[in-house]
Amino acid sequence: MRILGLGTSALALAWLVAGDASACPKGQKRETHEIVQGDSLSEIGAKYGMSLRELENENPGLRRDSILKLGRKVRVCVAPEEAAARARAAAREAAIAAGEAPVKCGKGKVILDYKAVSGDTVGVVASRFGLREADVQGRSAALKKDPDSLKAGQRLELCVDERRANAAPECNYETPIFEHVVVPGEDPSDIAGRYGVRSPDLFRWNRGLKERARRLHAGDKVKVCPAIAPRVRDKVIHKVAKGENLGVIALKYGLSPGELLTYQDGKLKIDDMLSIGQELIVWVDGAIAPGFGGEYDDDTGVLKKGVQLAPGPYYVVKAPVNAWGTAKTVRLIQAAVAAYAKRSNKGPAVHVGDISKKGGGKFPPHRSHQHGRDVDVGYVLKGAVADEPRFLHAGRSNLDAERTWALLKAFVDTDEVRYIFMDYDLQRLVYEHAKSAGESQDTLDELFQYPRGRGRSHGIIRHWKNHVNHFHVRFRE
Ligand SMILES: [Zn+2]
Question: Which of 191, 267, 337, 404 has the most CB atoms within 10 Å of its CB?
Answer without folding.
Answer: 404
